[in-house]
Amino acid sequence: MNSTPRRRTRLRPTDLLRLGMIGPRTRKMRSALSALGIALGIAAVVAVTGISNSNQQHLLERLDQLGSNLITVAPGKGSDQKPVPLPPTAEKMLAAIGPVQQVTATGATKANIYRNDLVPEQQTGSITVLAARLNLLDVLRATLTSGHWLDAASENLPITVLGDQAAQRLGVTGPGERVWLGGQWYKVAGILAPNELAPELSTSALVGRPQAVAHLGADGTAATVYLRSYSERVPQVQSVAAATANPASPNTVAVSRPSDLLAARAETENTLTGLVLALAGVALLVGGVGIANTMVVGVMERRGEIGLRRALGARGGQIAMQFLLEAVLMGFLGGMGGLLLGSLAVYGYALAQDWAAAIPLYTLVVGPAVSVVVAAIAGIYPALRAAKASPTDALRSA
Q1: What span, in angstroms and rounded, lies between the C-alpha atoms of 21 and 304?
Q2: What pLDDT sits at residue 78?
Q3: Final residue in a domain of this structure, among 197, 228, 259
Q4: What 3 state SS string does 163-199 have?
C-alpha cells in the first residue's frame, strides 16, 4: 500500500508568538522577576549613562566658563629681544576670525598709581595702570569682591577698579576710597576677585578706555587681546591668531596655548565615557545571567510539556524557537521597563543637583535593542537544551 509522505508543517509567526507567550503567561511571577532582572540592568545602563553624561555636560560647561576656550594674544619679542607692540588693527582683525565668539582687550598707559599725592614717584608698588574695555569681566568670567565694574558713564570719568593685590598694596579696603593716579584723584569703584585666567589683572588698576586716552597717555590700541572661541575650534584659532594680529610679522606675536583646562576637558570626557561603558557592560552581564538562569530552570520544570509536544510531532527547532522567543520577550519587556526606570532616575538626580538632564539619544535606542540581544544570547543554551530533550525521557521525568 502506497502511503504519501507527510508534509512538514511550519508554524506561522502568530503561532510562534503565541507559543512564546506560554511561559510568561503561565508563570507570571517568575517571568516578571526575570524581566525585572534585565530591567534593572538596562535601568542601570540608562541611569549611569544619563547621570554621567549630565554630570559631564555640567562639568564641561564649567570648564568652558573658566577658560578652556580662552586664548590670549600679546606682544612678543623681536630679534633684539625687545617687546614688539601689536598693530592698531590687531583687535579688529582677531575679532573677524570666524570661530571667535568674544573679544576684549586691555591697553597700556603712561600713568602710575599711588595711595596719595605724597608718595615718592619711584614707589609704584609694581602696579600697572591699564585701559580696559567694558566687556573685560564678561569675557574673562571675572568677578568683584566688592563694588561695581565700569559702565558707559564711568569709563569717561576718573574712576578705577583695582585688582585684589593692587588694592592690598595701596591699602584700599573697599570702594569709595580715593587714589592718586596720573596726577589726579581717582575714585575706586570696585575691587576684583583673583582670576587665574588673567593673573596680571591682580596687580593692575583698570580705567575706562576713553578716560585713559584723554588723560593717561594711552593711544587706544590693544596691548593684550583676549579671545573666546568655540571649544572644538580652539586649536584652529590658535594657529591663525598670530598671522591675523600681525600679518607682517607673526613671529613677534605671543599667542597663549589653550588653557590647561582644555586638556582636563578632554581627559574628563574620555574618563567618564570609559567608566560608563564599563558599568554598562557589568549591568548587562548581570541581566543576561539572570535570564539564562531563569530559562534553564524553566526548561527543567517544563520537561513534561516539552515531552508532550515532541510526542505530538513538534520538532526540536520549534521547541527551541519557543524558548528563545520567551527569552526575547522577557528581554524586550525588561528593556522597556529599564528604559523608563533609568530615565526617571536621571531626571530625578539632575533635578536634585540643579543640572540639565542629558540622556544620550543612542542610549534610548540602543538600550532596549541590547536587552533583546542579551536576552536572546542568554536564551540560546536553554533553548537548545529543550530542543535536544528526548520525548520519552522528558515524559518519564515529568
Answers
A1: 18
A2: 84
A3: 259
A4: CHHHHHHHCCCCCCCEEEECCEEEEEEEEECCCCCCH
Q: Say how many C-beta atoms besides its own lie within 10 A of residue 55's C-beta.
A: 17
Backbone phi and psi for residue 253, each to the nearest 5 degrees, phi listed first? -110, 130
Q: Are residues 207 and 224 in the same domain?
A: yes
- pLDDT tens track for 248-283: 999 999 998 645 555 566 566 666 666 666 766 776
Q: Are 33 and 297 in contact (CB under 8 A)?
A: no
Q: Which of 374, 386, 377 is nearest to 301 (CA)?
A: 386
Question: Nearest to residue 39, comparing CAs of 349, 305, 368, 266?
Answer: 368
DSSP 143: -
Closest CA to 104 of 66, 136, 138: 136
Number of domains in the chain: 2
Give me the pLDDT at residue 216, please: 96
State which residues of the chain have pLDDT below 50: 1, 258
Which amino acid belongs to residue 50?
G
Closest CA to 282 of 107, 49, 121: 49
Which of 235, 384, 218 has its CA nearest to residue 295? Answer: 384
